[in-house]
Request: fold
Amino acid sequence: MFKDALRRHLEAAVRRAVAAGRLPPVEVPPVEVEQPRGRRHADFATNLPLVLARRVGQPPREVARAIVEALDCSPDQVERVEVAGPGFINFFIAPAWLQALVRHVHAQGDRYGSHDVGAGRRVNVEYVSANPTGPLHIGSGRNGVIGDVLANLLAALGYAVTREYYVNDAGLLVHRLGQSVEHHYLAHFGIATPFPEDGYRGEYVREIARALVERDGDAWVHRDPQTRVAAFRDFAVAWCLADIRRTLEQFGITFDVWFSERSLYEQGAVDRVLAALRERGFLYEQDGAVWFRSTLFGDDKDRVIIRSTGWPMYYAADIPYHLNKLERGFDLLIDVWGVDHAGDVARVRGGLQALGVDPARVEFLLYQHVRLRNEGELLRMSRRRGEYVTLQDLLDAVGRDAARYFFCMVSPSVPMDFDWQLARQQSQDNPVYYVQYAYARICSILREAEGHPHGRRWVQAGTLDAAAVHDADLGRLVDPSEAALIHALAELPEVVYQAGMRREPQRLPAYARDLAAAFHGFYTQCRVLSDDPALTAARLVLVEAVRIALRRTLALIGVAAPERM
Reply:
């Protein structure tokens, strides 16, 4: 709220300074407004004069004075402005603006922090999309949280968001799953077969085979092997997808669309795309395989698109899949992929470019690997060896809230070590516990207010009466910890905007912790329920505003806001 308004004031001031001849004609660059650490010298500051000085050929302090003289800030917003250092402009916020911010939070309620920058444009966010060849592992958990929180953020920014899971139910990997199930099924009837090369060895594969035995008995023993493997593949994929759905629902993730890769083959979409690429000269044959001229689109070498065995590579279907999404009317496609798929980005993007698609309409958000640590020990995972920790294991151990919060804390671009032991702790060392405890403490204050002589007038059933927001004298909030708390409140709209537009969901838990810390600092310094009726009312309004902002932030992360802990 404060930063946006100050940016607009600064942009307008530069234009006025140019019109008045104080500055030569110049395009206003992006304006940065920051909060100095600890707000020791100002509430906010900008380096805009330093940036403009290089463009207009004037000393930075001279540019700063020209801008300050052209500023038109209301005294109810900005108490004073000063030029500092080599050319910074410092702002000191008026108490009335701080008070207005608190009331604004109440007025916005659970929409606080929202924007309309998206203006209803349609965005498809595709995430998780793990192969249905076994239970989800913890890497899929990180993928899911990044995608789900990003979808929440984009919705808060005014986009019309569709959440989609791409089901890889065609191709070599699900074929090997069918072969792996076949091996265990036949073994049940004493028929020894070699285990398939690169097959799946997890206990779940035996469980799928046992389910087939229970359902069909020996009906498949003497069937044609090709028919048998295809049937086992379909049964196993359905079994795995049901397990994936259950885990994701427990994780707080649901999808609007589950899109089948196989449908692209059945409807001829893959063949049509391959024919179009061939017709345009982007495919050629070599060594018995079909190659895509991906070097024309920035790849380091051309890539096989159809193996010499006839099995297509993944991206052979990925290209028509993205075309399908665009044909469904989406303005922007965002895919959340693991870094191990980084090489596929150039191939998919290149294939779409070859077919005339604007690459700006397709975005790939890559995240780094996640490793699990338990009491310092690194746990290694391999799905095919059957040696991996599932997402369900993690949820059973630490719960949904800790899992989502921890996955969201780290930038997607950075490898992550998930600290299993810390996530299970119920202490303020655990960041999600620390934030949730702040929320629960506010709820406790409001419950206590119902029995307090100066609180019960404003609070019923743990809820602050709207009259308190209107009538309270917020001018009583003069303690430095109260000002710091209001400044922390004001940051949420900026955090939501930057986290969504920059695809940086980790900004949300960082903000939640900062707001919780500001509240804990305030709570240490200031007694909410006091012998002063006016001060009690003002502080109740303030802590309720904090409760709104915390609840909103936790909801965007997909974490509960508990009223008791």
The two ends are 32 Å apart (CA to CA).
